[in-house]
Amino acid sequence: MSNACSKKRGFTLVEALVVVAIMGILSGIGVASLRSAVANSRIKDAGINVTAFMQRAANEATRLNEKLCVVASGKSIKTYKGECNSTGDQIDAMELESANAFVSSKNCPDGVTRYNDNKVTLTPKIGVSPIPSGCFVIQYGSTDRYAASIKATTKFSMYYKLSYDSGSSWFEF
């Protein structure tokens, strides 16, 4: 003898709605985490790229045995021949990706002074880095994520640090 309950197959509407609601909640959490991970990745890439650009400009100043001026503004960083108080021939340029931009309102980590007006003159010297002590600071959009490309007097080459809390703490990678 069979009854009606034993032949029931499938899911009820309530069960299906509960599963869809749970999937929606989990997707929302995942999207928020993904956005944060993308922002962290983009600001880290900006720090790496600006530091590499500065190292390349320093190598070029040494190779040419000429002073070079590096100017960072908005989303771009450019290298010119000569002092920063004059406009020479442009040698190189790089655009920051996505929402990254250079800022002049944020202090540098490690007690390093930010480059004045986001400009720096590279003076070639034998056996010494042509990059003077200072830093450029980059912000990702209007978030609290920052990268700093730093040249300290105690280090030969540049390095970068990241902050995920508006510059309260900085992490070197």
Give the secondary structure arrangement, pairings included.
Elements: H1 13-64, E1 68-73, E2 76-81, E3 90-95, E4 100-103, E5 119-122, E6 134-140, E7 146-151, E8 159-163, E9 171-172
Antiparallel strand pairs: 1-2, 1-5, 2-3, 4-6, 6-7, 7-8, 8-9
Structural class: alpha+beta
* Shape verdict: elongated
| Secondary-structure element string | HEEEEEEEEE
Assembly category: single chain
The parts where pLDDT drops under 50 for at least 5 residues are none
Put the structure in a nutshell.
30% of the residues lie in helices and 27% in strands. The chain is of the alpha+beta class and 173 residues long.
If you had to describe this structure to a student in words, what would you say it looks like?
With 173 residues, the chain is an alpha+beta fold. It has one domain (12-64, 96-115, 124-172). It has one helix and nine strands. The strands form two sheets. The chain has a five-stranded antiparallel sheet with strand order 4-6-7-8-9, with helices on one face. The radius of gyration is 25 Å and the shape is elongated. The termini are far apart. The relative contact order is 0.16.
Features:
173 residues, alpha+beta, 5-stranded antiparallel beta sheet, 4-stranded antiparallel beta sheet, 9 strands, 30% helix
